[in-house]
Predict the structure.
Amino acid sequence: YDVTIGYKYRCPSFMDNAFGVDPAEVHVHVRRVHLDDIPMSENEVTSWLMDTFHFKDQLLSDFHSKGHFPNPGTEKELSTVKCLLNAIGVIFLTCTCTYLTFFSSIWFKVYVSSVCAYLASATYFNIRPQPIAGYGKAVITRNSAKH
């Protein structure tokens, strides 16, 4: 994704950000960049990046003259019920996992420790296991080939 941020009246300074002063109005332009659109060779990438930044400069120039990006989207209100249900779900899962971690049997603690160790080592050694669905399909295909 290519994200361009435009500030309506003035760009916030470092001190504004440090002290938490919110900008008056912020506009965000998001453009999806397909992987196929990105060239492979270094010369083509250089040209593509230059064109992309020229486009972004033009986008910001138009924003400052017109006050908005092209094709503005609509901003919808968040549903209070959905937000409340999501918050309750997250709190419930957090409390359940915390309870099980501290007050359950030793086997749950062994399981949690094992999963953490596995995920840490899989991340460190870049291990990508076969998905379970793919494994099941391979077993079924192999069994049907035997018969």
